[in-house]
Structure formats: structure tokens, C-alpha cells
UniProtKB/TrEMBL annotation:
Catalytic reaction equation(s): ATP + protein L-histidine = ADP + protein N-phospho-L-histidine
Protein name, as recorded: histidine kinase
Entry keywords, A to Z: Coiled coil, Kinase, Phosphoprotein, Transferase
A molecular function GO annotation: phosphorelay sensor kinase activity
Ranges for domain PAC: 255-317, 386-438, 511-562, 637-687, 746-808
Domain PAS: 439-509, 563-636
Length: 1037
């Protein structure tokens, strides 16, 4: 199908190209504006080939350069001004000097010549360039160019050359016509010069041949008249002389002559033609000058040119055969032949296709050129053309299908003096039509293969097309159906329904209807019809539809009605609950007695209020069941849920429900089965699968394996095996005694045995250069009996190395703490002691400033001592911390409240907390975190009594603990800086503190593997949150 589509697309493209050439050829004959023809040609080429640019370049007089005369796609201002090189080494120059097109697939890679600046400036990549006119006398070039690289096929190249030929022919014709006009003007000039040289001698002519001559003075009176004026005005020369021009002549002639005489007296000559009676006269009015060149009179001459016009008409008729040759020129060839059936003129691109030289045809008759069998077919048409009769016929010639037309060529008298043969190459169209007919036959075979009836109706309901099934079902022949209306195949009581359906589909676009077809034998067959509105190729609306035999469906519906009684009998005795309800109102239409047995409730209230059945649904399942029942999809629902019987017993139900349609009505039909025992069995089945879930749920970054009572591995896996290039399959079936050295077996076997005895264990081993953290645990079945063991291994080599480095760091930090506690505290205590001694001893000797200075010094020393103590606490978080254990945060919170009781009472603070979780950590350090955060909440409460609330929320394997206050708040820009050591956002006189409390909190939280952050806005309070590991996650580590 893809190859066929491509072929059909190619045929359509070529047909379009041929149509464009033919249309441009016709316009070339009619067009007087050559630039307009060039614009139309370049637009047509660009659109047909899909190129961005197309232009006609006219060769300038020096033949070394051309100008872009017309084109499409170029930037504004380029057409008419841009020049292109036409020297022999350029692309345009090559096209001008050869009869072959120049095709460039990529100017960037072209080596024959460089791309013109015009193309480079427009990013043109590929193109076709064809000379306009012959290589001996070139006029210019026609070029089509694409902005992307592409390959032009032979048909596209030939198409551009054909358009160039049309332009060349039009330009040549235009130039010939211009030359004729120039010759005419030269002849007229010579005639005028001759008349002027003889004006003094022939001004008055007694007998002007075939006309009259008159001399008019400046008063517009006739002074001298000669010739035969009676032919013009019906008066004699004597009657005319000295009479005004306007009085003596007929009004229509006077209206033309008087203005021209006036103009001649002003020095302007003029010529015009006028029809008087049945004759045509030419008048010429010229000024008459004296020797000084001054106009002293006007000379008017008239001549009967009726015969000359006739001669001109005959001359035009003599050229008609050439125009006919062009005007009737299709995509093919054309020839003129005489009474001897000899060709007198031949041309056309088809001759190139057939490899025929036109010169070989001229002067030869068809009897010489064609074989006898072909001659017998075509000669009668040639003879008929000479007899004045036009004919069309088809022939096959040299492997091509040709469509030919012979027509008479008449002279000016309407007599046939030659014949014309116009031939079109119909090969591609024939092939296309043949493919189209094959496709039509293929489509018909498909439609005939369908068991359903297929039909197409026009807007009046007449059958336009149908498949074989229509004949088979109705019993009518194709000929009978062709004359039938759609309503004719239905009984009278059905026809109105069908007519309405046809009207509906034409109005809405689609319809669906059931009706009974009335066969030729009178049988009624039920059918369901589906139809849609489409437009035929002419744009007229048609109805396209399919009908399906629903006899069996109707039989099933009848069977369903018969089985309804059986249904009730069956459902009344089923153990499963069965119900039927209306999907619109939700009213329960039927509920079998099994409901009372399963629910332990009376079924009558359900009929009164269907929603009461939800009262028995378990509260945790009620919303889900209600949602599922309210939105039953087309495919139905299948829900398992629990009910609570009046005695408190919980039962599991499996309820399935779906929408059932019958004769246009919808019903919800459902069945509910008590699956309590099945659910219990499934639970046990899930337990039997627990070993696989355990394998996944307890799988750390390392390896995991299952082993049996003989300590043989039954399953194994994990990235640790891959890192050691161990195939898990090599482990399965092997025991630990076979796989590990004796010293390692001696170490680990007790843990393996303990797991089989139901005890979980953790231990570390060294194996293959790795530090491994191991965990053995029992795997139990549904009865909670241990039937296997599991080994979970993590590679902690990197962790142990990190711990070693951490211990070294902690040792250095401990040294610093020791130095701080002794070497720094001792001189600070001495300073503080002496300052206090000065204060006591010299209290009376100090003035007010001295006392203030001494107070500043004492306060500074105290603050320094507090900062050192805080720094000591900060440095000892890791080194002096207690081992982690399960910690009840509720108890920690109560201890903190007791320690802060004095601050709480003094500030009238309200400190509350939700139920806090059990976490894994250092009890004293966690107390310090909570105490620092709550103390800050009290200190930074602002003018209102402090309010703080502690809460916690589970997030995966950690808890998020939050302390929220309603104090002065923190600028978000300082959210990170508040956790830095000695960073206080307030001056000491505003709020006391060393600026190390939050840094200490951060270090403690980080020791617990968590993080701490603050969310706040100035004046809106602050929420400090930190994470701590759950007890379960910590035990997994």
C-alpha cells in the first residue's frame, strides 16, 4: 500500500506540473504584459516544486551579467535591482550557453562554479537553472532554489525547462511584435516625409484616389477641396468651398474632424478611423507650414480603407494556423498538415520523449511515417479534418498511450486550407486511472466481503452505492436496486422511521436506528443501522451507513424474557445475594432472600431507602463502596468490603455489579458473595509468600540470602555478590561449610542456628578484604513456625573507615575541649575574680563612670565565660555524647517544662505539645535541643506573652519534630545564618545570649543523622523543625 500511495502521489505531482505548463502556455498567448507572465510563472514554479525562491534573470547587453527581473521569495528591493554574474564560469553562464538544465544539489559542495552572491545572501542550497531562449540567442535564465539540500528528479527538472520554454516563446513573440510595430512606425515616418516634401505641389489634388483631400484655413473654412468628397459628405467640391467645416459635414464626422483641424492649426497632426455607413474611412489631419515653418492652414485627407481592412483580416487569418498551433497546444505535440497529409509544421515536447526530430516530419506524409496498421486507424481522422470535421481518438505509439485530436484550420473566408493534429501523452493518466480502477475494484471486493450491508444514499435518499450483501439480503438484483429509493426496501409501517433517520443524519451528522428490511419475497428481517454524513467528491452531502442483522439478538431478547421467570426461581434459592436497581433513581427493584442471611437484617427497608444498605458496611470501607456504587463504569465494578452484622460479627463480601441494557432500559445487576472464608485463606496464602517479601523488605545495600535447616542457601542475591563477581546460582544449594573457611564458619554458624531457633542476631565479619555487617533472622510460615533463616549482609568497609577518621577527629576535638576548659577558663576566672575584688574594695573610690566601666568589664568576662562553656558544649557533642537508645520525647518534653518553669511563670508563657513519638537518640542531647528552642521562643516573644507549641509528624523512616512560636520572627534571608556559631541577630542589650544555642542544636541534630531548619517571617513567629530517626529504622541499622 505504501508503494502504491507513493506512485499515485508521483502521478498527481506530474499531472499538476503538466497542468501548470499548459496554463502558463495559454496565458503566454493572451498576456500582453510579459512581466506579469514572469511573476505568474515564478510563483507557479515555486509552489509546484515547494522551493523557497524562484526567479527570472534577464541577460544584460554586455552578456557578462544579468539582472533579477522577476521572482518570488526574494527579500524586498531585490527584484529589479540585484545582478548575477553570467560569465562562462558561472551557473547562469553555463545555463545560457547550453541547452541542458544546470542542477546543483548543494552549492556549498559545488566545484563547477561558485554560488552567486544573490543565492548565498538568501541561504539557497540546491537549485535548477534553465536557459530562456536558445543557446545561440539567449535571453536569460529561469531558476528555482531551495533553502535546504534536496535532489530534484528528472520530472521536476523537465518541468522547469518546460516553463522556461513557455517564457522563451512568449518573449520571442513579444519581441517580434515590437519589431513589427517599429517597422510600421518607420514606414509611417517615411510616408509623412514624402508627403511633406510634396505638400506645395500636391496640396490640392483634383482627384484624390479612393478618397478626398481638403485645405482648411484658420477660420475652419474649406479653401480647397479635391478628390471625391461625395463619398464622405454627399456634396460637391463647389458646395464645400468657403463653407465652415462644422456645417457641411454630418454631425458624427464633424465632431471628430473639427477638434483635429483646430489641433492641426496649433501644429499637431492626428489620424483616426471612422465607420460611415457600411464603409470604413481613415482620416489624417496635418498642419501646413510656410517656408518659415509657421502653420498657415490644415490639410485633411480621407481614404476609404474598407478593402485594406479586409486585406488585414486575411493577413491575420493567414497567421491563424500558427496561433491555433499554440492555443490548442497541450502537454504533447502539435502538427499542421496539408491536403496531401504532409506535415508543414511540427513541434512539442512529446517529440523529445518519442525521440523524434521535428525536421524529419516536415514535408513528409503520414503514409511515409507510420505503419499501415496505425495508418488505417488515424487516416480517416486526418481526412475528416480537411473536410471541416474535428475528431478525437486514442492510439498506442512507441510504447506510449496518446490522446489525439484532429481539427480543420480555416482561412479568412472560413475555408479549410489545412488540418491540425494535437497530441497529448496520456500514458501517466492511463496508468493512474488503471491503478484507480484497481483500487476501486479492491475496495468493492472488501465491501462485498463484509457480511453487513453497506450503502451510500444521496440527499434525496436514492441508493448510490451498495455491496453484495444488500442484494443477498433483499433478494433484489443490482439493476433493480439501482432504480430504488432507500424507503423501498422497508415496509410501510417502517418507512417514516427511516425517512426521519435519513433527515437526522443529514442534519446532525450521524444516527443509529433499528428497523425491519422487507425482502423481495416479503420476509421481514430486523436490522440495526448506523450511518454518518459525508461529502462526495463534488461536495454534495451523502449518507454512508452499515446495517447489521440483529435477528439473533432479537431472539436472545425473547429468550431473556422467557428466562426471567427462571431467574427469579434461581435467585430465590441462591446463597449469594442478588439485586437489581435503577441507575437513575438508585431504587432497588429486586433483592433476593440471601441478603437477610448474609447481612442478618430484614430486606424490606432497602426497598424504601436503598442507601440504608451502607449502614451495615464497615466504617473504613463505607466511603469506597459508596463511591464505587455511585459511579459504576461500563465495564462494571468488583469490590471486596466488610460488613458488620447486628451481632457485631464482621463478614467479607465480594460484590460485582454492572450496567445491563435491555430494549432501551438500563439496569444495574449485582451479585454479592460471602467470601469471609476465602479472604482468610488468601491471608494465609500471603503469609506463605512472606519469605519473598522479607527478602525485599529487609534487603540493604549488600546481599541477602535464605538458608534451610542444613545451612544450605536456597536463594541469594544482591549487589555485593556482583561486586565480588559471584554468581548467585553458585551459592544456591551449597552450605556455609562448603563456601567459607573454617574460622569464619566457626564464627557465624551460631548465628545461623539461632535464626532457625527463632532468634534474630547482628554481628560483624571480615571477608574478602571487606568489613561486613550481618543480620540473621528467622523466616516464619502462616502458622508462625520458623521454616528457614535469612542472612542480610551490608558492606560497611567505607563506614568503618569513616568512623576511624571520625574517632581521630574527635580525639583532636577533645584535646581542644581540654585546652578550652583549663587553659582558657583559668585566666578568665582570674580576670573575673580581680574585677569583683576591685568592685568590692574600691566601690567608694569609683565615680559613676568608673562603676559603669567596671560593670562592662565584669559583664564582658561573664559573657566570655558563657561563650567558652557554649563552645565546649558544641565541641563535645560527638565526644561526650551518650549512646543512642529509644527515647520517649513526651518524657523529655516534660523534663524541659520543669527546667524552664521559672521562665514560663515569669513570662506567663503558654507551652503546649501534641503526643510526641518514641525516637532513637541521646536523651540528654535531645533535651538540650528542645530546651534551647523553647527558651528562645520565650526570650524572643516580643511584647505579648510567649506562645509555643511542639508537634511531630511521621515522614517515612524519620520523625519531623517542630517547635512553633508566635514571637518576633526572623527574616528569611537570615534563616541559615542563625545556625552559625556566635551569630546573634540582636545586640546584647536587646537580647542576652552567646549566639551558640542554635548552632549547638544543629550539631546535635546532625549527630542523630537529621537536619534542622527554620520557617519564619518578621513579626509572624517562627517554626523550627528537625528530623530524628524512628526506632524501627535505627534498629535496622
Amino acid at each position: 500500500m505504501d508503494t502504491t500511495s507513493e506512485s499515485e502521489s508521483s502521478l498527481r505531482t506530474r499531472l499538476r506540473q503538466q497542468e501548470v505548463v499548459a496554463e502558463l502556455g495559454q496565458r503566454a498567448l493572451d498576456a500582453g504584459d510579459i512581466d506579469r507572465l514572469m511573476r505568474e510563472a515564478t510563483t507557479a514554479v515555486a509552489e509546484t516544486l515547494g522551493t523557497e525562491y524562484c526567479g527570472v534573470i534577464e541577460l544584460l547587453s554586455d552578456e557578462e551579467e544579468g539582472v533579477l527581473r522577476q521572482g518570488v521569495g526574494w527579500r524586498d528591493g531585490v527584484v529589479g535591482t540585484a545582478t548575477v554574474s553570467a560569465d562562462p564560469d558561472s551557473q547562469a553562464g553555463v545555463a545560457l550557453r547550453t541547452d541542458e538544465p544546470v542542477v546543483v544539489e548543494d552549492h556549498r559542495a559545488e566545484t563547477r562554479f561558485s554560488a552567486p552572491g544573490l543565492l548565498r545572501g538568501h541561504d539557497a542550497v540546491s537549485g535548477i537553472c534553465v536557459g530562456v531562449g536558445s543557446s545561440e540567442g539567449p535571453w536569460g535564465v529561469l531558476g528555482a532554489y531551495a533553502a535546504e539540500r534536496r535532489e530534484f528528479d528528472a520530472h521536476e527538472v523537465e518541468f522547469v525547462r518546460s516553463v522556461a520554454d513557455v517564457l522563451g516563446s512568449a518573449i520571442a513573440r513579444t519581441e517580434r511584435e515590437r519589431a513589427l510595430r517599429e517597422a510600421g512606425r518607420r514606414d509611417e515616418a517615411r510616408k509623412r516625409a514624402l508627403e511633406e516634401s510634396e505638400r506645395r505641389y500636391r496640396t490640392l489634388v483634383e482627384q484624390f484616389p479612393n478618397g478626398a483631400v481638403a485645405l482648411v484655413d484658420d477660420d475652419l473654412r474649406y479653401r480647397t477641396v479635391g478628390g471625391t468628397p461625395l463619398d464622405v459628405a454627399g456634396v460637391t467640391a463647389e458646395e464645400v468651398r468657403d463653407r465652415p467645416v462644422g456645417e457641411i459635414l454630418p454631425p458624427n464626422l464633424a465632431d471628430e474632424l473639427v477638434p483635429r483641424y483646430e489641433a492641426a492649426l496649433d501644429g499637431t497632426e492626428d489620424t483616426f478611423e471612422i465607420e460611415l455607413g457600411e464603409r470604413i474611412y481613415q482620416f489624417r489631419v496635418v498642419p501646413v507650414r510656410d517656408n518659415a515653418g509657421d502653420v498657415f492652414a490644415a490639410l485633411g485627407m480621407s481614404q476609404d480603407i474598407t478593402e485594406r481592412e479586409e486585406v488585414q483580416r486575411k493577413l491575420e487569418a493567414s497567421e491563424r494556423r500558427h496561433r491555433t498551433l499554440v492555443e490548442n497546444f497541450p502537454n504533447g505535440s502539435v502538427g499542421l498538415f496539408d491536403e496531401n497529409l504532409e506535415y508543414t509544421a511540427v513541434g512539442g515536447q512529446l517529440l523529445d520523449t518519442l525521440d523524434v526530430d521535428p525536421e524529419d516530419r516536415i514535408g513528409r506524409s503520414i503514409t511515409e511515417l507510420h505503419p499501415e496498421d496505425l495508418l488505417e486507424d488515424i487516416e480517416p481522422y486526418f481526412r475528416a479534418a480537411l473536410d471541416g470535421e474535428a475528431s478525437t481518438f486514442d492510439v498506442e505509439y512507441r510504447g506510449r498511450y496518446l490522446h489525439a485530436r484532429t481539427l480543420p484550420v480555416r482561412n479568412a473566408d472560413g475555408e479549410v486550407d489545412a488540418g491540425m493534429l494535437v497530441v497529448q501523452d496520456d500514458t501517466e493518466r492511463r496508468r493512474y486511472e488503471r491503478r484507480l480502477e484497481q483500487y476501486r475494484e479492491y475496495t468493492n471486493r472488501i465491501l462485498d466481503a463484509i457480511d453487513d450491508v453497506f450503502y451510500v444514499l444521496d440527499a434525496d435518499g436514492n441508493l448510490q452505492r451498495w455491496n453484495r450483501s444488500v442484494c443477498e439480503v433483499t433478494g433484489y438484483s443490482d439493476a433493480e436496486i439501482a432504480s430504488m429509493h432507500a424507503l423501498d426496501v422497508f415496509a410501510e409501517d417502517q418507512q417514516e422511521t427511516i425517512a426521519n433517520a435519513i433527515a437526522e443524519v443529514l442534519e446532525t451528522g450521524s444516527t443509529q436506528e433499528e428497523a425491519e428490511i422487507l425482502t423481495k419475497d416479503g420476509e421481514r428481517v430486523p436490522y440495526e443501522f448506523v450511518a454518518s454524513k459525508l461529502d462526495d467528491p463534488d461536495g454534495d452531502p451523502v449518507v454512508v451507513g452499515v446495517g447489521r442483522d440483529i435477528t439473533r439478538q432479537k431472539e436472545r431478547e425473547r429468550a431473556l424474557e422467557e428466562s426471567e421467570a427462571k431467574f427469579r426461581m434461581l435467585t430465590e434459592n441462591l446463597e449469594e445475594m442478588v439485586w437489581i436497581s435503577d441507575p437513575g433513581t438508585r431504587d432497588v427493584l429486586y433483592l433476593n432472600p440471601a441478603y437477610e442471611e448474609i447481612y442478618g437484617r430484614d430486606r424490606e427497608p432497602i426497598y424504601d431507602d436503598p442507601a440504608t444498605f451502607l449502614e451495615a458496611v464497615h466504617p473504613e470501607d463505607r466511603r469506597r463502596v459508596e463511591t464505587a456504587y455511585d459511579e459504576i463504569p461500563e465495564e462494571g465494578i468488583d469490590e471486596e468490603f466488610r460488613i458488620v452484622r447486628p451481632d457485631g460479627e464482621i463478614r467479607w463480601l465480594d460484590a460485582r455489579a454492572g450496567v445491563v441494557r435491555n430494549e432501551g432500559e438500563e439496569r444495574i445487576v449485582g451479585i454479592a458473595e460471602d467470601v469471609t472464608e476465602r479472604v482468610e485463606r488468601e491471608r494465609k496464602l500471603e503469609e506463605s509468600e512472606r519469605r519473598y517479601r522479607t527478602l525485599v523488605e529487609d534487603f540493604p545495600d549488600g546481599a541477602v540470602a535464605l538458608f534451610d535447616e542444613d545451612l544450605r542457601y536456597t536463594a541469594a542475591g544482591g549487589q555485593l555478590l556482583k561486586e565480588d563477581d559471584i554468581d548467585p546460582e553458585d551459592r544456591i544449594g551449597a552450605s556455609i561449610r562448603e563456601l567459607y573457611p573454617d574460622d569464619l564458619v566457626e564464627q557465624v554458624e551460631p548465628y545461623f542456628r539461632a535464626a532457625l531457633d527463632g532468634e534474630a542476631s547482628t554481628f560483624e565479619t571480615e571477608y574478602a578484604g571487606w568489613n561486613l555487617f550481618n543480620r540473621t533472622l528467622p523466616v516464619r510460615n502462616a502458622d508462625d513456625e520458623v521454616y528457614a533463616g535469612m542472612l542480610v549482609v551490608r558492606n560497611v568497609t567505607k563506614r568503618r573507615e569513616y568512623e576511624r577518621k571520625l574517632e581521630e577527629s574527635n580525639e583532636r576535638l577533645e584535646q581542644f575541649a581540654y585546652a578550652a576548659s583549663h587553659d582558657l577558663q583559668e585566666p578568665l576566672r582570674m580576670v573575673s575574680s580581680y574585677l569583683r575584688l576591685l568592685e568590692r574594695r574600691y566601690e567608694d573610690a569609683l565615680d559613676e563612670d568608673g562603676e559603669e566601666f567596671l560593670e562592662f568589664a565584669v559583664d564582658g568576662a561573664d559573657r566570655m565565660r558563657e561563650m567558652i562553656e557554649g563552645l565546649l558544649q558544641y565541641s563535645r557533642v560527638d565526644t561526650r555524647g551518650n549512646p543512642f537508645e529509644a527515647v520517649e520525647l513526651d518524657a523529655v518534653f516534660e523534663n524541659v517544662r520543669r527546667d524552664l518553669q521559672m521562665k514560663i511563670s515569669e513570662s506567663d508563657a503558654d507551652i503546649t505539645a501534641e503526643r510526641l513519638p518514641r525516637v532513637y537518640g541521646d536523651r540528654s542531647q535531645l533535651k538540650q535541643v528542645l530546651q534551647n528552642l523553647l527558651a528562645n521562643a520565650i526570650d524572643y516573644s516580643g511584647d505579648d506573652p510567649p506562645r509555643a507549641h511542639v508537634s511531630a509528624e511521621r515522614d517515612g523512616e524519620e520523625w519531623v519534630v517542630s517547635v512553633r512560636d508566635e514571637g518576633i520572627g526572623i527574616d528569611p534571608a537570615d534563616a541559615d545564618r542563625v545556625f552559625e556559631v556566635f551569630q546573634s541577630l540582636h545586640a546584647p542589650d536587646e537580647h542576652s545570649g552567646t549566639g551558640i544555642g542554635l548552632a549547638l542544636c544543629e550539631r546535635i541534630v546532625e549527630r542523630h543523622g537529621g537536619r534542622i531548619w527554620v520557617e519564619s517571617e518578621p513579626g509572624e513567629g517562627a517554626t523550627f523543625s528537625f528530623t530524628l530517626p524512628t526506632v524501627a529504622s535505627a534498629s535496622d541499622d
